[in-house]
Structure of NUDIX hydrolase:
Amino acid sequence: MELNDYSKEDKVLLALDCIIFGFDNEGLKVLLIKRNFEPEKGRWSLIGGFLKKEEILDQAAIRILNRLTGLDDIFMEQLYTFSKVDRDPVERTLSVAYYALIDIAAHDKKLIQENSAKWFLLEDVPKLIFDHDKMLERAIARLRRRARTKPIGFELLPDTFTMPQLQKLYESILDKKLDKRNFISKVNGLDILVRLDEKDMTVSKKGAFLYRFDKEMYDQKVVDGFNFKI
Amino acid sequence: MELNDYSKEDKVLLALDCIIFGFDNEGLKVLLIKRNFEPEKGRWSLIGGFLKKEEILDQAAIRILNRLTGLDDIFMEQLYTFSKVDRDPVERTLSVAYYALIDIAAHDKKLIQENSAKWFLLEDVPKLIFDHDKMLERAIARLRRRARTKPIGFELLPDTFTMPQLQKLYESILDKKLDKRNFISKVNGLDILVRLDEKDMTVSKKGAFLYRFDKEMYDQKVVDGFNFKI
DNA sequence: TCAAAAGTGTTCACTATACACCCATGG
DNA sequence: CCATGGGTGTATAGTGAACACTTTTGA
């Protein structure tokens, strides 16, 4: 029979690791740091930290993300808890992985430098320490699934963006080419974007209209039974 | 700058709680235990336990499930890690929730009794201790999503089953009525079931053909790019 | 004037859904 | 012989995918 004598139970170290995704005109990227501390000094890893006694996991993840990006109010979701016994060579440590989506233009570049962090295109990610490769793999899989059914893509874009940008984003996430006309008519059919009068003239000569994701309109539609689907 | 002095970091108790789903002709059920130990003695809860130092989470979940059901080789998936600071009144404890799907007929009924456990229809589940309600809610949501895209429903059925049974199962999981003809033609279209010559005569006078889920055929189709979808 | 990116509709195949009657059998 | 649950097909609407030309304008 189970006892309630908690003192007999083993305690463990609990870490968090964050997979931080960003997007720019080169494609979908992930933020990694070059460790200047042991173990595995000099190698690339996800950013992480330990859970503090008085924190809940979400708070700890926010703290860790803020330390590297300077951002708060980041989209973030718990991913999975990794528990292989020897995943950390120093001491038994479990790690709760979180993934986050940020507007790559909005983060604090100085903080990134200070932490010897760097954005990597997904296809250029080096071998990571510990089980961080598995974490990244799982995060990519989750992002792909989520992006199809929740409007989380917008978290990766600035407040206003063009249709070609949005399409490239989804092409990066889903890792396949999409048809321009089908994509635009599908997105417009969702009726959750508002087109501004302004154009972005930096990419093409013709210029591309800017759009904004209308969260209120989206939330209202969800209440009415609408399901986002791309 | 982050340090590698692990000894400064806080350690925590790590529990596991299992949401065990089963299905019979009454519907989709969850297995709960009436606690005969403090805290919250006498109230209903999920079955749980603590992670041991030398275990990975999946092993611990298997151990806990086996203790109550007598089964091994159970379908099981990590769900989420719950971390509210005061979720356990005795001591700061995080809990990793797992959900499991079992054939309700195959489990060990004596073990269930010894542990004062009981199967509850989802709609009859009483208020649970701690944050177990949230765990169950999340497990149901996950089960609903997974059941649409992975053939996990069969984990809840005996080795052989009838079409009406299978349909009732999916109706319970998805919580909506399905059309008999559409359901059958969709399922048959997947081409992952084999119909036996045998009939189940226990429910109707006419009898209903028995089917078996052909895992090899399914796995081969997945390799060939097939996607399960119900 | 031309290169480079933006914008715009239609057709077709397929999938999802709605729907009603006959069959087999034990009691 | 009849009540009960098992089994079967078709028509329609909606969604997803393929596909090509015109517009704008800075260089």
About this structure: The first strand of chain B starts at residue 11 and ends at 24. Residues 6-149 of chain B form a domain with the Nucleoside Triphosphate Pyrophosphohydrolase fold (CATH 3.90.79.10). The CA atoms of residues 12 and 73 of chain B lie 29 Å apart.
